[in-house]
Amino acid sequence: MVRRITCPQCGQDTSVADPKAALVCATCDHPMTKWLRFNVLLDQWYEAKKWRKDIVRPDAMYVLEMLWTANGMGKQIYEATSPKDTPYSIFVYTVTRAIARGIDEGWVEIIEPAYPLANDPVYRLKFTDPDRLPDEISKLYPDVNMDEEIVAPAGALAGAE
What do you get for the CA distance between the two ends of the chain, in Å? Predict the structure, then answer.
């Protein structure tokens, strides 16, 4: 499916045939990373609906946070790792930004719906390297014992895949 997104650098439309392929704006050669394209898609989704008062402009970091903390996984990871002197909100903030970086580095994928600009698009996360998230958390919080196994209920990761 070919989609058109607007380059945030020059404002010109660029075609996106494969959301996994590298993309450079045809007009200004500005690189469009996967994370940047996700932000642009959310902006374009909102732009068509901004006249509705019940639609709030989506924030890409907030959407990403909701994806990885779904079904209580954020709380479970936080409680299992118990980072010293770190409130849950700060833990979620830092891990969300690590996951956003992981999207561009390729160890996390955002699975887009067939039509990302639908009224209620459903996005999912796929961790292509399951060992990378614990590694990133241990870099953020060196005092955490990452050898401890986190037990998740069956089906808790169904939405996160």
Answer: 23
Cα–Cα dist 77/100, whole Å: 17
Count of domains observed in the chain: 1
Q: Which pLDDT tens digit goes with each residue over 101-136?
A: 998 888 998 887 766 556 666 778 899 998 899 899
pLDDT of residue 90: 92
Evaluate whether residue 70 is within a structural domain: yes
Calpha distance 24→113 (Å, rounded)? 22
Contacts of 134 (CB under 8 A, 6+ apart): 146
Strands annotated E in 1-150: 3-6, 13-16, 23-24, 31-32, 108-111, 124-127
Q: Which two tokens stand for residue 149?
A: 């196994």
Print the domain residue range for 74.
Answer: 56-161
